[in-house]
Amino acid sequence: MSEDINDPVTLSSLVASSTTVSEVRPAIMVVAFEGWNDAGDAASDAIRLLRQASGAKKIIGISDDDFYDYQFSRPQVRRGAGGKKIIKWPTTHMYRAELEDSPVDLVLLRGVEPTYRWKAFIAEILTRAEEENVQGVMALGALLADVPHSRPIQASVTSGDKHIRAALDVQDATYEGPTGILGVLAQVSEASGLPTLSIWAAVPHYVAQAPSPKAQLALLHRVEEFFPLTIDLAELSEDALAWERGVNEVATADADVAAYVRQLEQAQDETSLPEATGEAIAKEFERYLKRRNRPVFGEDPSISGPASAANESDSPNASGSPEVPESPDDPEDPERTAGS
Questions:
Q1: Rounded distance, CA 279 to CA 301, Å?
Q2: Which tens digit of pLDDT belongs to each residue from 68-116?
Q3: How far apart, in Å, are the Cα atoms of 156 and each of 72, 183, 208, 334?
């Protein structure tokens, strides 16, 4: 995961070049919250995959009772080892992974959108982030949209910081309207001087249940563009293909749904066609070549990059959908630990 002069500018390279001296290695914090910001659980599931692949360890949990209405975000009853009942409370956890060959480490924040005291919640998160020497923030979200499941899921990247937009060639954050905790965190992080990116995947609104592997795949491909890592996405790519085939079967069985999907496909194809220029294709291929030799999370570092490149090139065009939020995984929960 090392970067050289031929690598594209990434959020991590910007952070590494401007980091203040500290005993703790600099880190980029990747954030997702279940709930309003997380159609199809795509963003929170992306964080879970990053945590498992990187071996990130939990470092802190944000206090539960101060921020949640348990009639709205209800605790879950689970069965642990030996059939013992465990109560899983909605909460937010922070994890950290050391990336030895990278100029920065990875901090992951995954939780449930709080009900109360958002300002205090954000202040606590940023205080913890400062302790971990977080020097940049990457916010992941997913929203329902009028998009077809059979086309690439669009994952847009925005930043409110003009310097970040210029350096990384991303769009301005122009949205106005109701926002969730993710939008508030991005705004406050930028105001605090932290380089911040927001990545949002558009999930087909007519497939409104989790999981949403195609949207999750779109988010993770975007993460790879702005962070010096490559993730093993072979299994997720297979899940996305299976998901698309399943939605195809349901859609073709209903004439009205099939007609609606064709209408969405036509609208998206007409909109996307001007972008399919030689310059755009060349730029995408260049990004692919820059990433193809990076070690893959979860694999032996001695294995060369082409295997990870094959996984990436085999991945389908991305898509997804949402559900009632579930409390995030806790390494101390025996059920979750077994699968981590």
A1: 33
A2: 999 888 998 998 888 889 998 898 999 999 987 788 899 999 999 999 9
A3: 30, 14, 20, 36
